[in-house]
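Exercise 7.
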Amino acid sequence: MSKKITIPAVKFQDMVARSVKGASENKLLPITSMMCIEMKNNVLTLTTTDTANTLKVRADKIQGEDMYAVVPVSKFSALISRISSDSVTLEMTDKLIVHANGRYEIDLCVDEDGVVQFPEYSFTKEGEGQIINLTSVKNILDINKPCLAKTVDTPALCGYFLGKRVITSDADCICFNDMDVLGGEYLLSAEMMDMLSLFKQEKINWWYKDGAFLFESEDMVLYGVEYDGKEEYPADAVSQYLEVEFPSHCKLSKIAIQDVISRLAIFIEPYDKGGAYFTFTKDGIQVASKKNSSNELIPYQRSESFASFHCCANINMLKSLVDSCPEESVELYYGDEDCFKFTAGKVTQVMALMVDEETANG
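Solution. The predicted structure, written as tokens, is:
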């Protein structure tokens, strides 16, 4: 005998779109390419995992019978995203049959014991938990993500360090975001931070115990282990850049920087590796491509302790930092041979300068 559940299509599409973000689809770990669909007491739960994190997206007051199915996440999510009917009915037989614009059969994920049983995490909540705001999560992603390490040369740098401030760093840039969101020192993986942004409610309850987090709201639960390497994270070392004294600084329009870079990028050759020349003059920063086929001035809004300075910087990195700036203007500190420092509101960014033959020879 088949079992059926029916749910409004738009609501289900939103649930599936969020749930799929929890599946890493690692070919060596089959469970990460599956989605568990469970209906119990009129509560529908979609579960996915990357083995380090488990994501559950829920909806209550759903019409239908109790059901448990595990399906291939890629095919199922692709189908649901393309339907245009008002509602979706899921029918469970020896397959999962989707009734929407038409009738579609999805093979269940099975093993020798039948339908695959999704692994369950174990976490006992103590007390009412604490609160993290969704706006804080999105702020961190908007501002800190550009400086998150992309390679695992130093694994700890692939995570977000949350302490008195949020820190991300790779070999070429550092971002300090002056906000204490969890009231302690924790290291969160990039995947966990991305999944946190999938919550809908502003107030997210969270608990931490024995190296694991549980985040929860009315319609979503995220469980995951803390990212390895908190003890190795060089938070104190990189924070020393906050104390570095720069000879000069200026204030620049964010839009002016973005406009100049967008035009300059047309003239950057592959062998330039994103590099362009920055010459600080009394009127502003003269920005030129290495062949001088593009040369343009970014005027100062304000200049203090001016001193002439010439350097080479990566415009792709500069663009990512300026794009993430939360203010309309940026304070740029310069004169150090190794780096620039940018400040805007509660955000400080440090960007390494490029070693270049012209600038090295003065």
